[in-house]
C-alpha cells in the first residue's frame, strides 16, 4: 500500500489539524487542491470529499455512516508515546473516543477521531519496527 486518501469536508481545516496539530510533514497547501503528508511507509492524502466521490463515480456522493468499519493506526515505539500522541491530537481538536488503556492483545492503545470523524488508533506493543520506521509484521 502506498497511498491512503481521506475525503474531507473542509480541506483547510483538515490540513491545519494534520500539519499544525499533529506535525505531519508536507510541501503542499490546500490551495493546491490536494494535500499529501509523507510518513514512513504510506503517504496520507487529504482531498475534498465531494471531489473524491466524483472521481470514484456516480452514486458515491453519499454521507458516510459514523462507523465505516475502517480504522487507521499509528504505532509508536514506546508505551508513553501513546498518551503523548493522543494528547497532541486532542490539543489539535481531535475527539478522544477511547482513552489509552491496556489491550487484550498485550499492548496499550487508545482512539481519537479527526475533524471528519476518521478513527485513528494510537498503539504500542503490537509490532516491532524495521530500520526505515515501517512495521515488521510476522
Brief rundown of the structure:
With 138 residues, this protein is of the alpha/beta class. Helices cover 23% and strands 33% of the residues. It starts with a strand and ends with a strand.
Q: What descriptive keywords fit this protein?
A:
four-stranded mixed beta sheet; alpha/beta; three-stranded mixed beta sheet; 138 residues; 33% strand; single chain
Residues in helix, %: 10-25%
Profile the largest sheet: 4 strands, mixed
Compute the average pLDDT. Answer: 94
List the secondary-structure elements in sequence, H or E. EHEEHEHEEEEE
Give the oligomer, counting copies of the same chain as homo and different chains as hetero.
single chain
Beginning-to-end CA distance, first to last residue: 17 Å
* Shape call: globular
Structural write-up:
- This protein is of the alpha/beta class.
- It is built from 3 helices and 9 strands.
- Strands 4-7-6-5 form a 4-stranded mixed sheet, covered by helices on one side.
- β8 (about 130) and β9 (about 135) form a beta hairpin.
List the helices and strands and how they pair.
Blueprint: E1 3-8, H1 11-21, E2 35-38, E3 43-48, H2 49-56, E4 72-76, H3 79-91, E5 95-102, E6 108-113, E7 119-124, E8 128-129, E9 135-136
Parallel strand pairs: 1-3, 4-7
Antiparallel strand pairs: 2-3, 5-6, 6-7, 8-9
